[in-house]
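Lecture notes, part 5. Sequence design as translation. It can be helpful to think of inverse folding as translation between two languages: the language of shapes and the language of residues. The source text, in structure tokens, appears below.
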């Protein structure tokens, strides 16, 4: 399936399983994403997004969002939206 790069991981909070992502495009709850890096490579559905600890249904380019991730992510990992 085609993918479009939409952001980069800037931080990971292992104790709560949340990755912080700097977005370069829009992302919304329900989107399918693929996170890829040097040792990271997995896909998941976006189940929730937060900006400044507030749940939001959608985020836009330039936003810094918190995203619950199913596996460990690393700074500089790339985030892609899977286009269906």
């Amino acid at each position: 399936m085609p993918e479009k790069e939409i952001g980069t991981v800037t931080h990971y909070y292992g104790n709560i399983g949340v990755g912080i992502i700097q977005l370069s495009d829009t992302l919304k709850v329900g989107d399918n994403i693929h996170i890829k890096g040097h040792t990271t490579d997995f896909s998941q559905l976006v189940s929730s997004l937060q900006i400044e600890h507030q749940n939001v249904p959608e985020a836009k380019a330039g936003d810094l969002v918190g995203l619950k991730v199913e596996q460990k992510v690393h700074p500089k990992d790339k985030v892609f939206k899977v286009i269906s």
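The translated text above is only one of many valid answers, since several sequences can fold into similar shapes. The two ends are 7 Å apart (CA to CA).
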